[in-house]
Specification:
Shape: elongated
CATH superfamily of the largest domain: Pseudouridine synthase
Largest sheet: 9 strands, mixed
Number of domains: 2
Distance between the termini: 51 Å
CATH topology of the largest domain: Pseudouridine synthase
Length: 269
């Protein structure tokens, strides 16, 4: 089946669709031995020999969309010049190129999304920038007062206690980014974030994974993520912020989303 070249290049995991368009225009793409510089050009991945920078495209028989539990002391990339542990060290059994989306700080842990589809990775990154929600479990050095809970909810997003104790855990849903804003607000309250774990992006949850392990997304999770990405891209900045403060979940094609009112799994020591 004929598809646009930039889409095929992104699907093969070479680069994003936007970067693929630049490569086409600058004459770095060939189809059956002929240089193609027209953005509207199409090719059949099963019949045509497509080369980018002299290397022939190889398409995976099945795309990979996965969730990885990033462990502590690990960088959110596939290579680190300093020799530190990377996500690649956790991807046992994964061959070929993948794109991590939604990086975490070196000592933060939790959910990172991975995909072999460069176009999907680019769309997901844009959705995160535009307000696709992220849910974090935060370990603090003391319990928040009712007034402090109201401040966090009003400035960042919904927050609830998920585990009591000497060092309690709270679950916070942020619209898009906002980790540093959350840290700043807590710091003004005299609180240091002891641990930070991301447990969900949109409605895709970390589940029962162990640190350093990964699992493929189900077809249902992929559809849900696609819907959440579309929703995030359809909102204006003020709408995103207002919905985040109110704790309003995404609406999917005008319907009430599945799982509304159900809490995410609790944070653990």
């Amino acid at each position: 089946m004929l598809e646009r070249l930039q889409k095929l290049i992104a699907r093969a995991g070479v680069t994003s669709r936007r970067r693929a368009e630049e490569m086409i225009v600058t004459g770095q793409v060939e189809v059956n031995g002929q240089v193609v510089t027209k953005l509207g050009a199409k090719a059949d991945p099963e019949r045509d020999a497509i080369r980018v920078g002299g290397s022939r495209l190889r398409f995976p028989t099945r795309g990979l969309h996965a969730v990885l539990y990033k462990p502590d002391a690990c960088v959110s990339t596939l290579h680190d010049p300093a020799g530190r542990k990377t996500l690649r060290d956790c991807l046992h059994g994964v061959a070929g190129r993948v794109f991590p989306v939604g990086g975490l700080e070196y000592h933060a842990t939790g959910l990172v999304l991975l995909t072999s589809d460069g176009e999907f990775a680019a769309r997901l990154a844009r959705a995160l920038e535009r307000g696709l929600s992220q849910t974090y479990s935060v370990k603090l050095e003391r319990r928040l007062t009712g007034e402090e809970l109201a401040v966090v909810a009003g400035r960042v997003g919904p927050i609830r206690s998920s585990r009591e104790g000497r060092h309690p855990w709270y679950e916070v849903r942020l619209a898009g980014g906002g980790k540093e804003r959350l840290r700043g607000i807590l710091l003004k309250m005299g609180l240091h974030v002891e641990k930070l774990r991301r447990v969900a992006i949109g409605r895709v949850e970390l589940g029962e994974l162990d640190p350093g392990r990964w699992r493929a997304l189900s077809e249902g999770e992929i559809r849900t993520l696609e819907a959440d990405m579309k929703y995030a891209g359809s909102q204006t900045g003020p709408t995103r912020a207002r919905n985040a403060r109110r704790g309003k979940p995404p609406r999917v094609f005008g319907r009430k989303p599945a799982g509304r009112g159900k809490s995410l799994r609790e944070g653990r020591e």
